[in-house]
Amino acid sequence: xxxxxxxxxxxxxxxxxxxxxxxxxxxxxxxxxxxxxxxxxxxxxxxxxxxxxxxxxxxxxxxxxxxxxxxxxxxxxxxxxxxxxxxxxxxxxxxxxxxxxxxxxxxxxxxxxxxxxxxxxxxxxxxxxxxxxxxxxxxxxxxxxxxxxxxxxxxxxxxxxxxxxxxxxxxxxxxxxxxxxxxxxxxxxxxxxxxxxxxxxxxxxxxxxxxxxxxxxxxxxxxxxxxxxxxxxxxxxxxxxxxxxxxxxxxxxxxxxxxxxxxxxxxxxxxxxxxxxxxxxxxxxxxxxxxxxxxxxxxxxxxxxx
Length: 306
Hints:
By secondary structure, this protein is of the alpha+beta class. The chain has helices at 25-29, 31-39, 49-57, 112-126, 141-151, 188-195, 201-209, 227-231, 244-250, 252-271, 299-302; strands at residues 17-21, 61-67, 78-90, 93-103, 131-136, 154-159, 178-184, 214-216, 222-224, 235-240, 274-281, 290-296. The chain has eleven helices and twelve strands. Strand 11 (274-281) and strand 12 (290-296) form a beta hairpin. Helix 9 (244-250) crosses helix 10 (252-271). It is globular and about 60 Å long. Mean pLDDT is 89; it is low at 1-10.
């Protein structure tokens, strides 16, 4: 969900923001503006208003973060972030697929992404749904930290060019590979991660001991390990850059090398029975390079229900 670079703006305060369902046509009409600013999308790739209205009427989940100090008539504030999920059917049960999560750059310091995901979780559980899925680019380290460290997702599916080789978004010019993540809403793991009460020391220490399937060389290029040796282990790791968007801006050839190397590592390890279990930054508490931890297990073994 990384935003484009925006001009410096005065920071907003938490008291200005309300998290609520999108209710009116005016609420839903504001989605397009947020999509365009966050992802740089053309009209062709934004969610059509008529489809949004129909999805909402059919019981799907639209939650928004509204700035109450920026009123739009009687609409109850201006939309500055949102999450949209629709009902799906996966491995024999009803799920919610969270298709979009976006927060305007000027509001990112308020941790609205987590607040919106928690609101989605509450609404899904109220519907009797116990699992949520979504996709994200596994080269986006900020999103990897958010999804695994803060929310407790796991993944056993990798999608190559899920949205095609490119879209109108400036963020989708290096392919659209995605990890399909699973959020087991009733699990102890998710409850602990959302509450911030679970220490991940074991996983972080494990990463230090593993020889990565993909690692940095001294020049910042990806180097692949021996496949047979990697897959003979119970745990493997995959390193990624700290800011793939900056790599794309400065050296698209290098960015494509990272895409191809990590695509190989994820596809081969997941096919061999591993599950993406966690992500850790190289320097704790700081945005930067990091590594995925993958374990040989099933999702149910890794994330038992509470």
